[in-house]
Design a protein that fits this description.
This protein has helices spanning about 20-30, 60-75, and strands at about 45-55, 75-85, 90-100, 105-125, 130-150, 155-180, 180-205, 210-220, 225-240. By secondary structure, it is mainly beta.
Length: about 240
């Protein structure tokens, strides 16, 4: 008998992170870093990009529960015998911003914060036992707005802090195969997540900079639709200040 899984949960309200802290961070940065330093006077507009690797903390229990719930609605149960999880993936972002002073700026970026892949195999038990397999992929990308704080350490070397809001679109694709039949479900949700990073940059020729950044996106996604998770990114990149 052909059985179709309905994996689409009900809607949930979208939340947004307030940007009131952005103005406060700018004011604090201008006061705290107003003393004379040795760094080059880099201010104005800039463009940049980073590439690296990401690791997410997506919980597979969310996926298992959705499939088990769909099976239970049909009077069946699911038993898993093998699972495979891939949390590491490539990640990148491009950014543009404006340095109000050499120490404080506003940045807008577009980020691809990686992919999550999950395979599971087992048995669907009802009136008869049938082999079951699931393939799931989660992808998140979207814009972000941040405050940038730069702390000069020498004439060419500086530390960088970033704090902002990631407004990411998360897509959850799930394919369930029972015997020779399969059902595919695609869910999408756009939500806010807090973004923070720490890094360092080395200035070359007055306008070019090479940099490394460790960035975290916290609690993106949605617990009722695509799953809620966090991502850590380690990246290297380059920027040009006009």
């Amino acid at each position: 008998m052909h059985r179709c899984f309905n994996l689409i949960p009900g809607p949930s309200p979208m939340t947004r992170v307030s940007f009131g802290f952005l103005c406060a961070a700018i004011m604090f940065g201008d006061v705290a870093l107003g003393a004379k330093v040795l760094a080059d006077d880099l201010s104005g507009a800039y463009l940049g990009g980073n590439f690296g690797r990401a690791r997410n903390s997506y919980g597979t229990g969310f996926i298992d529960d959705q499939i088990a719930s769909s099976a239970a609605n049909l009077g069946d149960t699911v038993t898993y015998t093998a699972k495979s999880i891939k949390r590491m993936s490539d990640a990148w972002w491009v950014d543009t911003g404006y340095l109000v002073t050499p120490y404080v700026g506003i940045e807008a970026a577009f980020l691809h914060i990686g992919e999550f892949k999950y395979l599971a195999y087992g048995t669907l038990k009802g009136s008869a036992s049938q082999p079951l397999g699931t393939t799931t992929e989660v992808i998140s990308h979207g814009p972000a707005l941040s405050v940038i704080l730069r702390v000069p350490l020498s004439e060419s070397f500086q530390a960088e802090l970033r704090l902002g809001d990631y407004f990411g679109k998360t897509t959850l694709d799930t394919n369930v195969t029972v015997a020779s039949r399969s059902a595919f479900t695609a869910l999408t949700k756009t939500t806010s997540g807090v973004l923070a990073s720490v890094g360092a940059a080395y200035n070359i020729g007055g306008h070019w900079s090479v940099r490394v950044d460790y960035l975290r996106v916290n609690d993106t996604g949605d617990k009722n639709t695509v799953g809620k998770f966090s991502v850590n990114l380690a990246t290297a990149g380059i920027s040009f200040t006009f």
